[in-house]
Amino acid sequence: MNYNDELGKMTLVATGDIFITRKLSPYNEPEYLQMWDILQSGDIKFTNFEMLVHEFLGYPVAQSGGTYTQVDKMILDEIKFAGFNLLSLANNHSLDYSYEAMLRTIELFEENDLTHAGTGMNLADARSPRYLDLNYGRVGFLASASSFAPHGRAGQSRPDSIGRPGLNPVRYETYYELDANHFENIKKIDKHVKNDKIKEARKKSGWGSVDDVNTCTIGNNKYVLGHNPGIHTKINEDDRLGNLKWISDAKRQSDFVVYSMHSHEGNTEDNYKPADFHIPFAHDCIDAGANVFIGHGAHYIRGIEIYKGKPIFYGLGNFVFQNETVRKLPHDVYEKTSLGFEDTPANYYDKRSDHDNRGFPADKKFWQSFMPKCYFEDGKLKKMEIYPITLGYGKKRTVRGRPMLSTDSEAIQILNQLKDLSKDLGTEIEIIDKVGYIKL
């Protein structure tokens, strides 16, 4: 007798970031309903939930992920309407309202039977996989973030000390690589401002270390002597190994593994390309047992790579982007924009974007994305369809941010951009009738 989950067949539809403050269910445009039909045709339906669901529990932290996130719990009915069954909670907004709101979001997700990953009571809880049982097998799911405020990462428990709630981190180090000429100039500056003496004094007191001959640290900036001048990033080895350990665990405990990472970081010379640490880490995750690596966070699209027969998405862009209709905001954001106690949220949004003339509203790239539908057999990709998504660039605040299947000339523009970005990663995309198809 054969079991369904022995067949190794799985269909995944993925979307990017959901910054959602409003209902999805009232609308009935044909392109809108067609988009949901495509999403709901998948077995696995993934998104990054870049919100906190709470009743203004907890206190707004001093350093947020940008717009402080809050939405009422009615939004979980909208998530169910959409059909999502795999949601990442690890992102730069996870701790906007400290631990209370993060834990309340988890509580409400569990009450609504929504499979989530990426945050938890401590590091092991945030890092370990969650599972989703489907007709064609058990899905293991892990989520992480490389973009977050320092207080956001979860802490390890010890036998004698409680762990810290937070998100599953993928930390990285930024360093500036210089040739011999420029490195010598940095060393001179280090000495000129007497920073070298400060480092020596800190080492004597037991609080620091002195640079080696090929390194110079000034403040938070690390300069190294090398042959590849530029700004580079290097992954934190503890976080790399910690995530790979749990991917390996999920591989042995499930039939299909999804790994998600929220990452704003890009290549310093071309932000449409992944950061230095991103590509090798994605490869490591596949090698450790992930069937798909889903990247998001930059709020605009990046390319697709097929590695060992498995897809890597370096940036899915926004799917729902309603960061101008959050109901209440702490004073910190008003203060940052030179507004006072008499001002309202609408005043703040007007001032922040200069009435749509700067920031997110003024840049088309934040209002375009794509939705891939991936067909797997025996854990490997057999076919991928790519559907272009528009979020209403140029429309007013109460309209833009809601996704729609793009079926006009914008669809071709989105797919051609993705085609160019993916070509650099060795992936070819063919466009037929405003749908993209990966050439395998």
Q: Which terms would index this structure?
A:
440 residues; alpha/beta; Purple Acid Phosphatase, chain A, domain 2; 2 domains; 27% helix; globular
Can you describe what's shown?
Helix 7 runs parallel beside helix 8. The longest helix has 17 residues, at 237-253. This protein is an alpha/beta fold. The strands form four sheets. Strands 1, 2, 3, 4, 17, 18, 19, 20, 21 and 22 form a ten-stranded mixed beta sheet that branches. The protein has a six-stranded mixed beta sheet with strand order 6-7-13-14-16-15. The model has no long low-confidence stretch (mean pLDDT 95). The two termini are 33 Å apart. Helices cover 27% and strands 27% of the residues. It has two domains: 4-168 and 236-328 and 363-438, 4-Layer Sandwich (Purple Acid Phosphatase, chain A, domain 2); 180-225, no CATH class. The protein is globular. The chain contains eleven helices and 22 strands.
Helix content: 25-40%
CATH superfamily of the largest domain: Metallo-dependent phosphatases
Which architecture of the largest domain would the CATH scheme give at its second level? 4-Layer Sandwich
What fraction of residues sit in β-strands? 25-35%
Return the CATH topology of the largest domain: Purple Acid Phosphatase, chain A, domain 2
| Counted beta strands | 22
How large is the count of helical segments?
11
Number of domains: 2
Report the span from N to C terminus.
33 Å
Low-confidence stretches: none
Please identify the top-level CATH class of the largest domain.
Alpha Beta
- Protein structure class: alpha/beta
Instruction: Report the mean per-residue pLDDT as an integer.
Output: 95
Computed over alpha carbons, the radius of gyration is: 23 Å
Global outline: globular
Largest sheet data: 10 strands, mixed
